[in-house]
UniProtKB/TrEMBL annotation:
PROSITE patterns: AP2_ERF. PANTHER family: AP2_ERF DOMAIN-CONTAINING PROTEIN, SHN SHINE , DNA BINDING / TRANSCRIPTION FACTOR. InterPro entries: AP2/ERF_dom, AP2/ERF_dom_sf, AP2/ERF_ERF, DNA-bd_dom_sf. This is Putative AP2 protein. Coiled coil: none annotated. It comes from Hordeum vulgare.
Length: 190
């Protein structure tokens, strides 16, 4: 079969639209795959070549002969819009997730309207927890600062106020960041 002629754009698989933009498409067997609309014919041709590489077309059927690897046209063109069975399955899974999420949001909104006292109790819980965590973090920072300053006194020749078995020495290693620990959730359940 002779190769297809190049269109008025000068590139294989690229047609100019009346709007002045360029539309790229590629054929795979009996299926015509639309690749999108592009501002320039060059971009559309690069998209065609990227799709041609993915479909394992011979280089003779591509627009640019200076491309030697699959990555080159993909780097130069936007990703082609080839839809596979895996893409369809991913889309269906995301749609199901979105439906469940939206239904959950509706149910939660209805619950908040019907039981405002529960919302108030939850808000009070989180406000109390936030205050408690800030106080605990400030306490850890204070204890760590005390242990570090005491260590500096001892290193400079001063006498230790802590005994060798004193647990306050361990305060040097306290984490004072705002991140949550696994035991924080256990504390909340008590």
């Amino acid at each position: 079969m002779p190769p297809r002629r190049r269109g008025s754009s000068g590139y294989r698989g690229v047609r100019e639209r009346p709007s002045g933009f360029y539309y790229a498409e590629i054929r795979s067997g009996d299926v015509r795959l639309g690749l999108g609309t592009f501002e320039t014919s060059h971009e559309a041709a690069r998209a065609y070549d990227a799709a041609a590489w993915r479909l394992r077309k011979p280089r003779a059927q591509m627009n640019f002969q200076d491309v030697y690897t699959r990555e080159q046209p993909q780097d130069l063109a936007p990703p082609p819009r080839l839809i596979t069975d895996q893409d369809r399955e991913d889309h269906r899974r995301r749609q199901r997730y979105l439906l469940v999420f939206e239904e959950d949001e509706r149910a939660m909104a209805q619950l908040r309207r019907r039981h405002p006292e529960d919302v108030a109790a939850e808000n009070a819980f989180w406000a109390e927890r936030t205050v408690r965590r800030h106080e605990e973090r400030d306490d850890r920072r204070r204890r760590k600062a005390l242990a570090i300053s005491h260590c500096e006194v001892v290193n400079n020749g001063g006498t230790s106020l802590f005994g060798s078995d004193d647990e306050r020495w361990d305060d040097i290693w306290l984490d004072t960041s705002d991140t949550e620990d696994d035991h924080d959730e256990e504390d909340d359940r008590k």
